[in-house]
Design brief:
CATH class: Mainly Alpha
Distance between the termini: 52 Å
Largest sheet: none
Strand content: under 5%
Order of helices and strands: HHHHHHHHHHHHHHHHHHHHH
CATH architecture: Up-down Bundle
Helix content: over 70%
Number of strands: 0
Structural class: mainly alpha
Number of helices: 21
Keywords: Membrane, Transmembrane, Transmembrane helix
Shape: globular
Number of domains: 1
Mean pLDDT: 82
CATH topology: Growth Hormone, Chain: A
Radius of gyration: 21 Å
Low-confidence stretches: none
Length: about 425
């Protein structure tokens, strides 16, 4: 997955599963455009065979890795479309493996694996650097190393499936509940609604001139994102309250971290080694605290501290956070990158244990969380938190909104943790009565 996400792009945390849906319907490539969507839907329902899904995802991702060896291969349009299917399938396979580990009782390994599903994207963003800078970051070497590791990991997962099948401690696979199946299908299809929103439709709805809407392209993106976000909330509601709060927590911290991550990655863009070291330390710290018994407290504290740091950065720079970049403040940038990576990973890890008990890690942290990130990121263009503006650093001028989303994630974790604690305490009382 890192092989794909390290490709330069304007978004730091890409909702890979939501992006598998086709954004349009080209008449000559309809079948190929549907391949990523079909692959995602198949993976959601075939998680009991996650080793083979891992192999399929690696194979689909290989063309993107080969492009870095032979750039001429990147000119074929179908290659770009097919490549969109690889990372989502890998992500769903890894989520399924984490769920298996958690249900078997291997909590530390399962929680670390959950953290790495988002940690790999954060690490990849640090490798790619700022999307608009053409810097020699040693990306080819990293691509080769990670491609070899991905092939080896997929082969190992398949070769050991017999031993797992003979081990009685491995739990039997559970069928996906009907309401989660419906919610996952809806979430996978929803991103296509954003592609149906264009300037003409917005002009008719708002009764404004087309020329006026054309001058503010972020309005179209925001309306499309809002439609997807509302649909995602409905899909989460279908799945139930626990799924709703878990997906909302995961999405809030990811959307909230996008703008400050852009600032942090750009501030250390000219120090590539420091960049990936900071990201690696942050991801490792997030996995470490996420696997501890105090994961909820660490996650809440990390999200709150990250929000306070963003307020301080905004205030200390006079509302112009890119001063960190102008003044070559690489150490503050690296510390911010490490803090954000740790906070995002720790927050997402906290949502895993309860979902694993119900056997629904894949649909909730997969399609449901991804569609909320996709819709939320689109809707936030209305306040400049995403890159709808010609100014690439426009999102970092609105760190207050990002801090607010991080505080929302902290509140969701604290509230869910308090509810689960009270429910656990009430059970012995009910039994004794």
């Amino acid at each position: 997955m890192v092989v794909f996400t390290a490709v330069r792009d304007t978004s730091i945390l890409r909702p890979l599963i939501a992006l598998a849906a086709p954004s349009g319907w080209p008449s000559d490539l309809v079948a190929v455009s549907l391949l990523p969507l079909v692959a995602v839907l198949a993976a959601v329902f075939l998680t009991r065979w996650w080793p083979w899904l891992l192999v399929a995802g690696v194979v689909l991702s290989l063309p993107t890795a080969l492009v870095h060896l032979n750039p001429d291969l990147g000119g074929h349009p179908s290659l770009t479309i097919i490549a969109l299917a690889g990372p989502p399938v890998v992500l769903l396979a890894v989520l399924a493996a984490a769920q298996k580990l958690l249900r078997r009782g291997a909590r530390t390994a399962g929680l670390v694996l959950l953290g790495l599903t988002v940690g790999t994207q954060l690490f990849a963003a640090s490798l790619a650097g700022a999307s608009w800078l053409m810097l020699a970051t040693g990306g080819l070497v990293w691509h080769l190393i990670l491609t070899v590791l991905s092939i080896a990991g997929a082969a190992l997962a398949v070769s050991t499936r017999g031993a797992r099948a003979r081990d009685p401690e491995w739990p039997a696979p559970r069928p996906l509940p009907a309401r989660f199946a419906v919610a996952a299908i809806l979430a996978a299809l929803l991103p296509m609604a954003a592609g149906a929103v264009d300037v003409m439709k917005v002009s008719e709805i708002l009764e404004l001139p087309v020329e006026s809407i054309s001058r503010h392209a972020e309005v179209v993106v925001a309306i499309g994102g809002l439609i997807v976000l509302v649909g995602g909330v409905i899909a989460c509601a279908i799945a139930g309250s626990r799924a709703f709060f878990a997906a909302a927590t995961s999405a809030s911290v990811q959307v909230g971290a996008m703008a400050p991550l852009l600032l942090a990655v750009y501030s250390v863009a000219f120090q590539p080694v420091l960049s990936w070291l900071a990201a690696a330390v942050g991801v490792a710290a997030g996995c470490l605290v996420g696997a501890s018994r105090w994961r909820v407290q660490f996650a809440v504290g990390g999200a709150v501290v990250s929000a306070l740091v963003l307020f301080i950065v905004d205030l200390g720079t006079g509302g112009v956070p890119e001063k960190l970049i102008d003044h070559d403040a690489v150490i503050p940038g690296a510390l911010l990158l490490a803090l954000l990576c740790a906070a995002v990973v720790a927050v997402i890890v906290t949502t895993g244990p309860r979902l694993a008990e119900d056997g629904v890690v894949v649909p909730v942290l997969g399609p449901l969380a991804s569609v909320l990130v996709f819709g939320g990121a689109g809707a936030m263009t209305a306040v400049g938190v995403q890159n709808a503006s010609p100014t690439r650093l426009e999102p970092v001028h609105h760190l207050g909104y990002s801090a607010g989303l991080l505080l929302l994630a902290a509140a969701l974790i604290a509230g869910t943790g308090a509810f689960e604690h009270l429910r656990t305490r009430s059970k012995p009382e009910a039994v004794s009565a």
